[in-house]
Amino acid sequence: MTFISYAQNFEDIRLWRALKYVENGFYIDIGANDPTQDSVTKAFYDRGWTGINVEPMPNYYHALCEQRPNDINLQCVAGESADDLTFYGIAGTGLSTLDPALAQQHKDAGMDVRSQTVKSRTLASICEQHAGNRPIHFLKIDVEGHEETVLRGMDFTRWRPWIILIETPWERDQTWETLVTGAGYQSILFDGINTYYLAEEHLALKPAFDIPPCNLDEFQFCRGHNFSHPITDAENHLAAALQRAEHAEAQLRAMQNSRAWRALQKLKKVLIRA
Q: With left for phi above 0 and alpha for psi between -120 and 50, is residue 144 left, alpha or beta?
């Protein structure tokens, strides 16, 4: 069965290579964003997995509730404590953040940044309520500069995600990394956007991450994926051509039904008989 990839940078392909033998697995997605576009968990959900999606943006949260009815969807942020926090939303992007400095950078770049008050919960409390004692096969964190507070709110002695991937573009400060490595995880891969960590008790999965995604993974990108834009462009051109053809056909039918056309056909028959 061909694997359909939705993630922006092959994350779901890498994870599936390591975890495809797990049936009915479980994930936690902190900063879930859209349930389909660039989603790391969509392909897993389609294969019977379920999980917890934490997403403060109202439009994405409601979309998750609609499209992921088997998941646990929480409209909040994960933080170091249970507080009300100021969240800076940027609609239609994955750039919303709790970091006021990052928000100002986006605002200076011309983006529409809107602040709102959101509820914060610790990741440990979320796991306590919704994960219980079930294994967490992977934890994904994409919180635009708020990584440390998410990690400080987690109890890695009780809940041990097999794999953790954290969005860590190269320009970001990663002084928080010791919160992960000090909890018994090894950094095994940086893919240009994310850093992957393996729990020490699951290091047997490391070979799955040793080579980049390739043709042997038997995958294809979802419709509209950024990496498949030439195909999308071709489809757009084809759709435009079909629309022009349909318009021309409609004009021809209208002409054939006109009085002038019928009169011309009668005259043509008379001339042929003559």
A: left
Residues 248 and 150 in one domain: no
Q: What is the pTM of this model?
A: 0.77
Per residue in 3-54, pLDDT (tens digit) is 999 999 999 999 999 999 999 999 999 999 999 999 999 999 999 999 999 9
Written as six digits, the tokens of 168 are 């860590």
Q: What is the C-alpha separation between 76 and 170, in angstroms, rounded?
A: 27
Shared domain for 136 and 265, answered yes or no, is no
User: Are 210 and 237 in the same domain?
Assistant: no
Determine the Cα–Cα distance for residues 242 and 235; give it in Å rounded to an integer. Answer: 10
State which amino acid sits at residue 232: T
Sequence-separated (6 or more) residues with CB below 8 Å from residue 115: 86, 87, 88, 89, 103
Instruction: For residue 50, give its domain range.
Output: 3-222
Give the chain's residues under pLDDT 50.
none
Nearest CA among 151, 177, 165, 158 for reference residue 80? 151
Assess whether 184 and 246 both reside in one domain. Answer: no
